Amino acid sequence: MIKYLGSKRLLVPRIVELARGLPGVCTVLDAFSGTARVGHALKAAGLRVTANDHNAYAATLARCYVQVDRDRLAAETERRLAELRRVPGRPGWFTATYCERARYFHPRNGERIEAMRATLAAWALEPELEAVLLVALMEAADRVDSTVGVQMAYLKSWAPRALRDLELRLPALLPGPGRALQGDALDAVRAVEADLVYLDPPYNQHSYRGNYHVWETLVRWDQPEVYGVACKRVDCRTQRSPYNSRRLIGPALAELVAACRSRYLLVSFSNEGFLDRAAIEPLLATHGSVATVEVDYKRYVGAQIGIHNPRGERVGAVSHLRNKELLYLVRRAS
Prior knowledge:
Elements: H1 12-20, E1 27-30, H2 37-44, E2 48-52, H3 56-67, H4 70-85, H5 93-101, H6 107-123, H7 127-142, E3 179-181, H8 185-191, E4 196-199, H9 208-211, H10 213-220, E5 226-227, E6 232-233, H11 235-238, H12 249-259, E7 264-270, H13 277-285, E8 288-298, H14 301-305, E9 307-308, E10 314-316, E11 322-332
Parallel strand pairs: 1-2, 1-4, 2-3, 4-7
Antiparallel strand pairs: 5-6, 7-11, 8-11, 9-10
Helix pairs in contact: 1-2, 3-7, 3-10, 4-7, 5-6, 6-7
């Protein structure tokens, strides 16, 4: 799956263990699904998962990894991937914006990304099949990018991986049912009743759309107006989450938790967030008993590499390389 700020890759086994250990839990709502890594793992563990995210790229990942039934689409996906691999590169707006004006991908790979995405658009496939192929393309592009892991900036010189050839692979699809939604988390928890609701909201000023704006454009395929050296979508300026605000995050989380229609809640947060343990535990305790699991965790890949400006130049030292991830398990009073 794609490199992702806030990825729960190392926490997934603990999350699955907690979910599977709860009596009567068969259905799960993941209200901020991101890469769908957690939803994918919960589906693999035999749970019925609904995954939601408001960003188009994340909803596409959820459709691929949670909603799609592998047994129905794997063969057709392989056939379409073989066709896409034969599509010759063709430069256009995407290449000019993200390979020349900005340098997220080498132009040779950018031309292929662009041509494959244009081909997908022309095919006008059913949504599930299109989602799987888009994820295959997104992940292929991620393996040859030239960033420190987020799309706030790109490296001054090409990363070695950026010089490799783009390679499409079949995503790790799972058999069985699931559901993917694209909407606000509050709307999702109000609409979907589940045994367990998993909440992994943004926890500081970093916007996921701003950090992964290229994926949003690749999925939407809308040639948006862009700004700055990083060529961000202009909607990154206007579509802000209350969870990216120190002032708004507390009330937003309180409203979200109160709206959940589930017996159990599992909330994931970081000690680098706007809310600390002393604030979150009392908020959750108004809805039931709270057990907290604290996990020592390596910080995101950008922190391992260092602080860089939009031109890819190193400009500062990282203060620390590890943090604490906290899982709050709430057993509702009723």
